[in-house]
Amino acid sequence: MTHSTPPDAEARQALRRAMLARRAALPPDEAARLGDAAQNALLASPAWQAARQVLLYVAVRNETATARLLEAAWADGKQVLLPRCVTSAPASSASGSTSSPAPSASGSTSSPAANCDNEMCLAPCACAADLTPGRYGIAEPDPTRCPAIDMDAAPAFAPGLAVIPGVAFDRQGNRLGHGAGYYDRFLAHPAMARTALVGLAYAFQIVPALPVAPWDRPVHALCTEEGLTWL
Questions:
Q1: CA 176/CA 160 separation, integer angstroms
Q2: Collapsing DSSP states into helix, strand and coil, what is residue 115?
Q3: Taking a C-beta distance cutoff of 8 angstroms, is the pair 206, 170 a contact?
Q4: Residue 228 pairs with which residues in a beta bridge?
Q5: What does the angle CA 207 – CA 212 – CA 215 come to, to the nearest 5 degrees?
Q6: Core-most of 17, 62, 112, 229, by most CB within 10 Å?
Q7: Exposed, middle or buried by CB within 10 Å (0-12, 13-18, 19+), for 35?
Q8: Where are the beta strands (DSSP E) in the chain?
């Protein structure tokens, strides 16, 4: 999708603040209920069931939960890829978030972490024990146990499904993130053109239209507590 009009940065930031505040205000039991319903909708889909390699994220700060997806993927023998932020800048847990597998024994092709500087690497993660707190306090694949996968190395990298977090989505699949650009840069990689992208969110995070940028890549489906919808 090509957009000739530059994004309205002020409108994006205002919506980002409003959505983050609303998400933060969700009571824990309500967030759990909505998250379970959204995950159940995705787990029941043929796209999930057919995928042998899936890209997921670890939910933080009241993001739509993914714990059931992770456990189901591991139990079903899927290879789980999780994000790891690699940057030369000093870490700060107070910053915004990105969300994020078998260790090297899985046979995946790995690339040096230095190749992912200021980017979002993906690493195969075989179980919860492979996770460690990362740059923003988010659980990420432990770099000592989970080497980054080489996205240019097919068939080692060929996720059938990618579950993408967002602050908001619109009904055309456009996504509003936290503003750091990690997912924007990652989704622009040519290897991701073969992957079905599913935006996972609460229903209130879906808006009629977002101000978009030329580099934004829409998702192919939206999954909320109301169900999974392919666009």
A1: 23
A2: helix
A3: yes
A4: 223
A5: 135
A6: 62
A7: buried
A8: 53-55, 79-86, 110-111, 119-124, 131-133, 139-141, 148-149, 161-164, 168-170, 175-176, 196-200, 206-207, 221-224, 227-230
3-state secondary structure of 68: helix
Tokens 């690699």 correspond to 86
Q: Are strands 139-141 and 131-133 parallel, antiparallel or unpaired?
A: antiparallel
Alpha-carbon torsion 177, 181, 183, 188, what sign?
Answer: positive
CA distance 97 to 126: 23
The identity of residue 191, as a single letter, is A
For 38-76, letters b (16+ CB in 10 Å) and e give bbbbbbebebbeebebbbbbbbeebbbbbeebbebbbee
- My answer on whether omega of the bond before 7 falls inside 30° of 0, hence cis, is no
Give the whole-angstrom CA distance, residue 192 versus residue 91.
Answer: 27
Instruction: Indicate the SS3 state at residue 191.
Output: helix
- What predicted TM-score, i.e. pTM, was given to this entire model? 0.83
CB-CB contact of 83 with 140 (8 Å): yes
Query: How does DSSP assign 207-227, residue by residue?
Result: ES-----TT----SEEEETTE
Q: What is the pLDDT of residue 22?
A: 97
Q: Give the separation between CA 9 and CA 211, rounded to whole angstroms.
A: 8
Low-confidence residues of the chain, pLDDT below 50?
A: 1-5, 89-115
Report the pLDDT value the prediction gives residue 103, as an integer from 0 to 100.
30
